[in-house]
Amino acid sequence: MANSKYEYVRQFEQADRLPLANWIVVRVDGRGFHRFSNKHNFAKPNDLRAINLMNKAAEGVLRDVQDILLAYGVSDEFSFVFHQNTQLYSRRASKLISTVVSTFTAHYIVQWPVFFPDSPLDTPTNPQLHPPSAADPALTSSNTNSTSDYSTREDLHPLPKDSGPPLTRVPTGPLPTFDARAICYPRHQHIRDYLSWRQADCHINNLYNMTFWALVQRGGLSNRDAEQALAGTLAAEKNEILWSRFGINYNDELPVFRKGSIILREGVNVARKEVGRGSGEGGGAREMGRGGEERIDERRGKGSVSGEGFGEVSETQMVKQEKARRKMRIVVCHEDLISDRFWEERPWLLVE
């Protein structure tokens, strides 16, 4: 960045680096998705197209951001887990959050026509061009920095004069947008408990929604009456309503509805051995001296992390880890995250 008298404004930036030796979760949540899903007629209680679209967007994030170990999604949310030793963007929260949520949104919008071809997000239109008002001093010949009037400048009219007004796209309703947050967890058990919490929430919400919409769609109740019928009911009572009144066995529902979606890297055994610690791509490299002091080298894209409580992660190791990740395929599964079996079968996921 060039030196100038204005560079002092950089001092107002806040250092938002997340604590070392903490697992990082970036959770993406849909904004205003109730209105958005109604606009595009999502099926109730679950729309498999919408779920597959969320999964596809999350897969795109894992392809683009190699430091992410796994992701878990349900409904309109997805949680992305970074290893505790990741040095991506020097662990700056703002960089990690903005990268994940913008990448996720981009993939969601690009993939939308694949899953909802008959419900476009926008429609083409040909608006009439309106030149700026002559009262605008920035765009008139009276401005000393302007060489001519707006209406006569060719660089402001790049289209041929006989081409007509340009084709633009206008949203047909609310667009899919997402917010995000970053949370740090010091132990791998905390990560397991976090993902167990999200999966338990998936089950609770899905059982309620299935019962609610069965009462509305097949039982003829209004939304208000269905809410009152389910007020204070336990899981066993909801299961009984589904079975006794509608012949629905909750356990026969698709696992993707009951357990959510897990997206992770699996494949080559050697890759699994290499992928144990976070890589250091992006941002400046952070180093810890022998006494634990912190050194930042903004000129380097990769570096090493060492010191008390940290294993040595050299630049060579980081390169090996990234190559190993690229050898592994990204898979989507719908398994039980709460039990030990999932983690015992994939011990490389939570290596400290």
How does the SSE layout of this entry go?
Layout: E1 23-31, H1 33-39, H2 48-64, E2 68-74, E3 77-82, H3 93-115, E4 122-125, E5 168-171, E6 177-185, H4 188-217, H5 223-230, H6 235-246, H7 255-259, E7 261-266, H8 269-274, E8 285-288, E9 294-297, E10 305-307, E11 310-313, H9 315-327, E12 329-333, H10 341-344
Antiparallel strand pairs: 1-3, 1-6, 2-3, 2-7, 4-5, 7-12, 8-9, 10-11
Keywords:
352 residues, six-stranded antiparallel β-sheet, two-stranded antiparallel sheet, 10 helices
Number of helices: 10
* Helicity range: 25-40%
Helix and strand run:
EHHEEHEEEHHHHEHEEEEHEH
Class by alpha and beta content: alpha+beta
Strand order of the largest sheet: 6-1-3-2-7-12
Low-confidence stretches: 128-154, 268-312
How widely separated are the two ends?
37 Å
C-alpha-based Rg, rounded: 26 Å
Report the principal-axis shape: globular
How many individual β-strands?
Answer: 12
Main sheet specs: 6 strands, antiparallel
As a percent range, the share of strand residues is 15-25%
Average pLDDT, rounded to a whole number, is 80
Detailed description of the structure:
The chain has 352 residues and is of the alpha+beta class. Helices cover 36% and strands 18% of the residues. It has ten helices and twelve strands. The strands form four sheets. The chain has a six-stranded antiparallel sheet with strand order 6-1-3-2-7-12, sandwiched between helices. A hairpin with a 5-residue loop joins strand 8 (285-288) and strand 9 (294-297). Helix 2 (48-64) crosses helix 3, helix 4 crosses helix 5 (223-230) and helix 4 (188-217) runs parallel beside helix 6.
